[in-house]
Design a protein that fits this description.
302 residues; mainly alpha; 86% helix; 0% strand
Amino acid sequence: MFRAVTACMIGSAFEWYDFALYGYFAAVLGKLFFPSADPLVSLLATYGVFAAGFAMRPVGAVIFGHVGDKYGRKKALVATIFLMTFPTVCLGLLPTYDHIGILAPILLTVIRLCQGLSIGGNLSGSFTFMIEYAPGHRRGLVGSLTLFSALGGILIGSAMAAFATAMLDTGALETWGWRIPFLIGVLIGGVGFYMRIHIPETPQYVKEMESEQAEGFPLKKIIKEHPVKVIRSIFVLLLNDVGFYVSFIFLTTYMTTIVKIPMDTALTINTINMVILMSLVPVMGWVSDHVGRKPMMMLSSV
């Protein structure tokens, strides 16, 4: 179990590292890909593309969730990490608006859409994979390691962005410095891809395949039989996601563009807060194994 869980965690960390870097470099990317006389317009356009990536997450979850049900959890996870690695290489090498004009923001949008598909499939697939490997009395703890690794990837992205902005002047950062963290992510992705290829399928999935218990399209059955629970679950996750990205992605840019806090300082503050959040995730997963999931969700919503 340790090897399988570790491979899943490394892959998740890489995918969220790449996905979050865009948000941390939003101010820089806005100038390079959406030039405007008004910096706020550039920033809004940049976040519009950021939001487009999020819009693809549910689509990715459905597509790769179906792949996981039909062909196996392992194959779905391998596919998602490949889908994240290739666009990340493209983003790190992508010419800016000054070089290829309107094609630059168009290609940037396509890249973000691919990343959104990947991250949606990876998150749902990783949770399923981890929980199916976990003992019944430790599902909260083991399942929380998916979020723990995702936060770890975002934390590394925040630290890399903070390091780049602290070490480079504005000219160097906007010319080539912003590309380095994206290209470094390819190395992490390669390790995650290799490890995921060599992990075994989850015992629960193998058992279902052997007994022919697997549904052809489980999502359709779940929505049909439990529509209210599905809607409630969506809103619970929306509350969590909105709060997280406002606190850890948007506020970083807000501090640098509106409050005029130096970018390296804002990213350092963000990194410290991320460490605190990350350390609490497995603790709360362990607590949920003892008090139940519903009380934990109600408390966190409050």
